[in-house]
C-alpha cells in the first residue's frame, strides 16, 4: 500500500463536502448587534473610530428594529447617551431616557427581535466610572460597590418594565447579579433574563466604544473593578459566582484576546455562553482593510467563526449586519 493511507484532504475536495463536515457554523440568529441611542440628536451621528457605526436618535428605533428582524439577526443590545449626566448617573433611571424609549419602540415594531440592555452607570455618570464614587479615609477615591449595585438593580427594573427581554449588567461590581435578580422578582419581572458580563477584562480594546457611548473615565482607569488580563482561573470563579447568584447566561469580554478563557468557561458551565467581539476588535479589522492589509469580509467571517468555535453560543458584534449579508440572510 502506498503512503499516505489516510488523506484528510478527501473531505476538503469540494464546497459541498466541506459544508457537510464543518464543525462550527455561523447563522445570523446567533449575532447580537450593539446600538447606541442618543437622547439629544435628530439624525444619526457617525462614530469616527468605528466605520459604519452611528449613534442613533430614538425616533429611528422602530425602523431599525424592523430592518434587523428582516435580516434574521438574533437581537440587539442597547446603550444610552442621555441628555444630562451627574455623579450618580441618575439619568440612567429615567423611564423616559433613550434606552427605555428605544426598547419600547423596538419591541412594539418587531416583537420577535430579542432586545437586551446594557446595565451600567458609566454612560450616565459625569466622571465616566461604572459606579458611584466614595473617598476612603486615606484619600483614595474608589467605586463604591454596595451603593452601586442598588442603583443597577433600579436601572434593570426600568429597562425590564420598558420591555427588555434580557438585562445585561456590565459593571463588574460584586454581588450585582443576585441583587438584580431579587429586585426583578420583587417587581413581578421574574421572566426578564439576566445575561451577566461575568468575565470582563480591563481592556484597551474598549477604546472606540468610549467614543461611541461617550463614557471614557475622566480620571484613573477601570482596573479596580474589571479583571486583570493575566488571570484565567479567576474567570471561572467570576462565572461560578454569577451562576450561583441566578444569571441565566454568561459572557466573556473581549473575545479575541480571551478565546482561551472563553473555552475554559465553556468547559465549566452548562449555561448559554456569549462573547463580546468589542469595539477595538471591530475597528482593528476596518483599519487593516482600509489600509489594504486584509480582506474585510473574509476576516469578519473567520473572526466570528473562531469565537463560536471557542465556545460562544452567540456573539455580540458590530459586524452583525455585514455578517448576515455575507451569510445570505
Ligand atoms: C460598560 C461597557 C463597556 C463596553 C460595554 N459595556 C465599556 C467599558 O467597560 O469601558 C465596551 C464594549 C465595546 O468596546 O465594544 N458600560
Outline the structure in words.
With 329 residues, this protein is of the alpha/beta class. It has one domain (26-326): Aldolase class I (TIM Barrel). 36% of the residues lie in helices and 18% in strands. The chain has 11 helices and 12 strands. It has helices at residues 15-21, 61-70, 98-109, 145-162, 176-186, 207-212, 233-244, 259-266, 279-290, 296-310, 320-326, and strands spanning 31-38, 45-46, 54-57, 75-81, 114-119, 133-135, 141-143, 166-169, 193-200, 249-253, 273-277, 314-317. The strands form 2 sheets. The chain has an 8-stranded parallel beta barrel, surrounded by 9 helices. It has a two-stranded antiparallel sheet with strand order 6-7. β8, α5 (176-186) and β9 form a beta-alpha-beta unit. α3 runs parallel beside α4. It is globular and about 80 Å long. The chain starts with 14 loop residues before the first helix and ends with a helix. The model has no long low-confidence stretch (mean pLDDT 97). The site of ligand PBG has 10 residues, from loops.
Amino acid at each position: 500500500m502506498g503512503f499516505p493511507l489516510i488523506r484528510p484532504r478527501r473531505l476538503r475536495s469540494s464546497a459541498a463536502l466541506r459544508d457537510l463536515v464543518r464543525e462550527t457554523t455561523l447563522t445570523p440568529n446567533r449575532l447580537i448587534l450593539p446600538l447606541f441611542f442618543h437622547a439629544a440628536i435628530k439624525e444619526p451621528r457617525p462614530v469616527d473610530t468605528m466605520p459604519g457605526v452611528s449613534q442613533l436618535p430614538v425616533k429611528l428605533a422602530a425602523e431599525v428594529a424592523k430592518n434587523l428582524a428582516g435580516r434574521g439577526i438574533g437581537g440587539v443590545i442597547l446603550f444610552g447617551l442621555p441628555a444630562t449626566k451627574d455623579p450618580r448617573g441618575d439619568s440612567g433611571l429615567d423611564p423616559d431616557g433613550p434606552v427605555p424609549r428605544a426598547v419600547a419602540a423596538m419591541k412594539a415594531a418587531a416583537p420577535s427581535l430579542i432586545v437586551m440592555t446594557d446595565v451600567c452607570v458609566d454612560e450616565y455618570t459625569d466622571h465616566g466610572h461604572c459606579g458611584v464614587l466614595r473617598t476612603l479615609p486615606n484619600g483614595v477615591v474608589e467605586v463604591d460597590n454596595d451603593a452601586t449595585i442598588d442603583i443597577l438593580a433600579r436601572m434593570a427594573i426600568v429597562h425590564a418594565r420598558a420591555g427588555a427581554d434580557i438585562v445585561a449588567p456590565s459593571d463588574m461590581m460584586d454581588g450585582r447579579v443576585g441583587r438584580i435578580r431579587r429586585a426583578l422578582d420583587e417587581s413581578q419581572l421574574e421572566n426578564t433574563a439576566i445575561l451577566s458580563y461575568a468575565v470582563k477584562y480591563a481592556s484597551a480594546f474598549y477604546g472606540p466604544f468610549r467614543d461611541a457611548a461617550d463614557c471614557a473615565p475622566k480620571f484613573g482607569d477601570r482596573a479596580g473593578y474589571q479583571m486583570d488580563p493575566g488571570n484565567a482561573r479567576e474567570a471561572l470563579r467570576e462565572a461560578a459566582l454569577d451562576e450561583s447568584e441566578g444569571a441565566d447566561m454568561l459572557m466573556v469580554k473581549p473575545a479575541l484576546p480571551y478565546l482561551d478563557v472563553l473555552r475554559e468557561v465553556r468547559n465549566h458551565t452548562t449555561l448559554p455562553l456569549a462573547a463580546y467581539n468589542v469595539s477595538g476588535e471591530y475597528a482593528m479589522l476596518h483599519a487593516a482593510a482600509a489600509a489594504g492589509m486584509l480582506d474585510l469580509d473574509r476576516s469578519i467571517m473567520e473572526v466570528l467563526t473562531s469565537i463560536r468555535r471557542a465556545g460562544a453560543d452567540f456573539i455580540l458584534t458590530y459586524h452583525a449586519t455585514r455578517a448576515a449579508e455575507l451569510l445570505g440572510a
